[in-house]
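Deliverable D2.4 — example input (structure tokens):
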């Protein structure tokens, strides 16, 4: 990879993160449990990572505000509109991933 200055690298990483959020927003059918099974992270993980990044920089960002950033709306609203109950198959796959 070409050596990038810090500012350019940060801009590219930020753009990629924004695109990831857009992609997740365009695919609300993908449930968090599916993401956890396949990639070992989900929208809530992204929210927690944002909070951690803010804390490292001594910036105020609480978990609910971070989740609204990631979900594009308050989490409770997203959950009511888009979250489906986990199927027995999803739960089994998630448990197998955790114990695997």
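Example output (designed residues):
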């Amino acid at each position: 990879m070409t050596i990038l200055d810090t500012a350019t690298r940060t801009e590219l990483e930020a753009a990629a993160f924004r695109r990831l959020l857009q992609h997740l927003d365009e695919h609300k059918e993908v449930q968090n449990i599916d993401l956890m099974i396949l990639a070992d992270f989900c929208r809530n993980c992204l929210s927690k990572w944002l909070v951690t990044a803010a804390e490292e920089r001594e910036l105020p960002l609480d978990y609910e505000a971070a989740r609204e950033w990631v979900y594009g709306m308050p989490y409770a609203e997203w959950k009511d509109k888009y979250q489906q109950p986990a199927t027995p198959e999803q739960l089994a796959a998630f448990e197998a991933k955790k114990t695997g």
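The helical segments are 6-26, 32-39, 43-56, 63-71, 75-82, 88-99.
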